[in-house]
Design goal:
Elements (H helix, E strand, L loop, with lengths): L1 H11 L3 H19 L1 H8 L5 H5 L8 H13 L2 H14 L4 H16 L4 H12 L1
Helix pairs in contact: 1-2, 1-7, 2-3, 2-6, 5-6, 7-8
Length: 127
């Protein structure tokens, strides 16, 4: 995962902690949306992913937590978006940063997993 963190810091101008936390937020959001079993089937073999995901900021609390709770009650992608926005704001990052993380993560995954896995994750994160 160091390679991904390096790509994010280089391409997006964020610091290492923001890169790790932002990637972790997006991977956790994908896991929440896909379900643990499917996520593990798709990405379980990526070395260091479990450790990276532990670096996501704690969810809940503040406006992001409130939005996440509200959006989860409503259902759909609103919950996913609120989770991502809340996590990124705890890292001092904006929604625009979150949008820029996805293509870098997809580019990284293209070198690590098959195109079918990348396509599914891209749809999950952009959906």
């Amino acid at each position: 995962m160091k390679e991904l963190v390096d790509m994010l810091t280089r391409d997006l101008g964020v610091n290492g902690a923001q890169a790790e936390g932002g990637a972790a937020v997006l991977f956790k959001a994908a896991k929440d949306k896909l379900g643990g079993a499917e996520f593990d089937q798709l990405l379980g073999g990526l070395p260091g992913l479990g450790d990276l995901m532990k670096k996501a900021p704690a969810s809940g609390g503040g406006l992001g937590g409130m939005l996440g709770g509200l959006a989860s009650a409503v259902g759909g992608n609103a919950g996913l978006i609120a989770t991502i926005v809340g996590g990124f704001s705890k890292l001092g990052l904006t929604t625009d940063h979150a949008k820029k993380f996805v293509p870098v993560i997809i580019q990284f995954l293209n070198t690590k997993v098959g195109p079918d896995v990348v396509s599914k994750l891209e749809k999950t994160l952009r959906g």
